[in-house]
Design brief:
about 20% strand, alpha/beta
Length: about 210
């Protein structure tokens, strides 16, 4: 059975205390910190930049899983790698050939929005280390997971038994067992984890959900 990684999403953390929040996630036993970067074009919101990643990296935070929700991620790939990203992904919906993927020198991934069929990823699965399957419309935290998410996970897992499948958006203890049984290996959770009375307990419960 694959081990499950847990990644608190910085989007739902206290923006006035990001350093403390990153420390809290590390002390609670999270595996990585998920950082959404939004350009206001690909998604209707703005969030985070290389300076935030550099600052958190400099203070010895968890490995940072940087998710570029941008129309032109290629303009920022080098910036985020230099800032300290351990994993970097952007959306298959904006991909133009393989060149952008080739530019990523850390763990590389592709994300997919709810309205895009899983098949859009299939031809890239042998070129990347992980996928991020959006369980909600990208742009805002605190949404409920959309129907059909587990089916997409199963479709991707059937094509590749080894790739890390991350689910981002609406992940809670209630739906985690279904996501894991379908083949998810990383759970990205924002509001559920940051709002938990005890983040360590919430992380362990998600990790052990079956």
């Amino acid at each position: 059975m694959n081990s499950i990684s847990i990644a608190p999403s910085l989007l739902s953390a206290d923006v006035l205390a990001l350093g403390n929040e990153a420390c809290r996630a590390k002390e609670a036993g999270a595996d990585m910190l998920h950082v959404d970067v939004m350009d206001g074009h690909f998604v209707p919101n703005l969030a985070y930049n290389p300076a935030v990643v550099k600052a958190l990296h400099g203070m010895g935070s968890l490995p940072m899983d940087v998710h570029l929700m941008m129309k032109r991620p290629d303009k920022f790939i080098d910036m985020f790698i230099q800032a300290g990203a351990a994993r970097l992904s952007f959306h298959v919906e904006v991909l133009k050939g393989n060149r952008w993927l080739d530019d990523i020198t850390v763990e590389k991934g592709l994300a997919i929005s709810p309205g895009t069929p899983a098949g859009a990823l299939f031809s890239y699965l042998d070129k990347i280390d992980f996928v991020i399957l959006m369980g909600v419309e990208p742009g805002f935290g605190g949404q409920s997971i959309l129907p059909g998410t587990t089916e997409k996970i199963s479709q991707i897992r059937a094509k590749n038994q080894a790739i890390d499948i991350a689910v981002d958006g609406g992940v809670t203890l209630q739906n985690a067992p279904d996501l894991i049984r379908a083949g998810a290996t990383t759970l990205i959770s924002g509001a559920y984890l940051w709002g938990a009375e005890d983040m360590r307990t919430a992380i362990e419960e998600l990790r052990c959900a079956r």
